């Protein structure tokens, strides 16, 4: 019998990390108790987030101390604090390298065994897997390559299809790098502002056009074993950058005319691109969740692009409304926050609270 555990340096690191996560979870959960600026909904949100962090921290701690893998003459056994899972060696189909773990799959497609990438004597284990079982990533790539080279939608002949795939990979690499740059630019120093937001919008529009133009050679998202390039970084980077700027730079009072067309457009765009790239599988529940996630990304882009572009380039004369201060308050916490409650004005149907600087707060009465 051979036993594999998490390597000692990684065990120590995981224990320290788990202690940090658990401490952070406790801080998140008690924060509303020491800060009277939290509202009822934020109490629930912080409690839920804190509980999630607590579960993650405890899980990391347990894995560090108790997770191990045993291989006998006939079985592979994954052990944790209170759980054991085993596979007969003869029933193993193959393995995949997925992020920070090795996943061993059975022939009957039941539950696989997941092995940490940070185990001691990892090379010994991977050599054993390599000699006795199939690398399922390699097999999947071979299968996808055969399907691609036989698909006439990707080119007139095999040479053309190979050339188109090569061009698709180059183009997607450039867009993903550009999307990452857009996020850093917009998040940290969006100057000149007009160029930052228009460039990010352009990257997103080019990415959508590429998905349509390449008809499935470039995809919204891909698995680790896929030969197809994806544009996930281009889409996430440009979307997140624009959304950050919209949230930080502008205070929109009324979204009543925005949500219905924005949500509808995001859903329709997601469905259309899933269809164009051929990624949506009606038989898989996960496909519906992925389509929903795509819709949220597109909604984030529409929101960020609409707010930043419309607000920055709107050169119409300002409409000025007079109002009076109804109430003043100071929120306490790590630092003071200053709020003014203004009586309703214009088309507003209720009073509105705004956050202001300490200097402005002191000048009001």
Adjacency order of strands in the biggest sheet: 1-2-3-4
Main β sheet profile: 4 strands, antiparallel
Distance between the termini: 79 Å
**Backbone CA Rg:** 27 Å
Low-pLDDT ranges: none
Q: Regarding quaternary structure, how should these chains be classified?
A: single chain
Q: Sum up the overall morphology in one term.
A: flat
Number of helices: 10
Percentage of residues in DSSP E strands:
15-25%
What does this structure look like?
With 365 residues, the chain is of the alpha+beta class. The protein has helices spanning 8-34, 40-66, 122-132, 136-150, 158-188, 193-213, 232-249, 259-277, 285-313, 358-363, and strands spanning 2-5, 68-71, 75-79, 84-88, 92-98, 101-106, 113-116, 134-135, 325-331, 337-342, 352-356. Helices cover 56% and strands 15% of the residues. The strands form three sheets. It has a four-stranded antiparallel beta sheet with strand order 1-2-3-4, with no helix packed on it. It has a four-stranded mixed beta sheet with strand order 7-6-5-8. Helix 8 (259-277) crosses helix 9. The longest helix is centred in the middle third of the chain and has 31 residues, at 158-188. The chain is flat and about 80 Å long. The N and C termini lie far apart (79 Å).
């Amino acid at each position: 019998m051979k036993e594999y555990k998490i390597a000692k340096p990684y065990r120590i690191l995981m224990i320290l990390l788990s202690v940090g996560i658990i401490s952070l979870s406790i801080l998140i959960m008690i924060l509303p108790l020491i800060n009277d600026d939290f509202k009822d909904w934020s109490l629930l949100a912080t409690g839920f987030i804190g509980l999630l962090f607590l579960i993650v921290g405890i899980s990391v701690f347990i894995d560090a101390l108790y997770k191990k893998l045993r291989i006998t003459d006939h079985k592979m056994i994954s052990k944790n604090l209170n759980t054991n899972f085993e596979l007969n060696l003869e029933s193993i189909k193959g393995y995949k390298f997925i992020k920070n773990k090795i996943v061993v799959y059975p022939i009957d497609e039941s539950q696989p065994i997941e092995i940490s990438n940070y185990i001691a004597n990892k090379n010994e284990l991977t050599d054993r897997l390599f000699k006795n079982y199939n690398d399922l990533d390699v097999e999947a790539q071979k299968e996808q390559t055969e399907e691609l080279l036989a698909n006439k939608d990707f080119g007139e002949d095999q040479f053309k299809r190979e050339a188109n795939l090569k061009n698709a990979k180059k183009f997607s690499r450039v867009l993903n790098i550009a999307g990452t740059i857009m996020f850093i630019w917009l998040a940290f120093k969006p100057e000149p502002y007009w160029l930052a937001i228009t460039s990010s919008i352009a990257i997103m529009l080019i990415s959508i056009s590429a998905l349509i133009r390449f008809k499935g050679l470039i995809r919204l998202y891909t698995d680790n074993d896929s030969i197809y390039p994806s544009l996930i970084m281009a889409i996430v980077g440009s979307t997140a950058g624009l959304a950050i700027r919209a949230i930080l730079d502008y205070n929109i009072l009324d979204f009543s005319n925005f949500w219905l067309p924005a949500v509808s457009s995001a859903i329709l765009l997601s469905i259309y691109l899933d269809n164009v790239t051929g990624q949506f599988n009606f038989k898989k529940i996960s496909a519906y969740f992925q389509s929903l996630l795509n819709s949220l990304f597109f909604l984030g882009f529409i929101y960020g692009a609409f707010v930043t572009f419309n607000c920055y380039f709107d050169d119409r004369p300002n409409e000025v409304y007079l109002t009076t201060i109804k109430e003043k308050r100071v929120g306490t916490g790590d630092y003071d926050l200053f709020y003014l409650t203004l009586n309703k004005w214009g088309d507003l149907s209720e009073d509105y609270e705004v956050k202001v600087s300490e200097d402005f707060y002191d000048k009001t009465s």
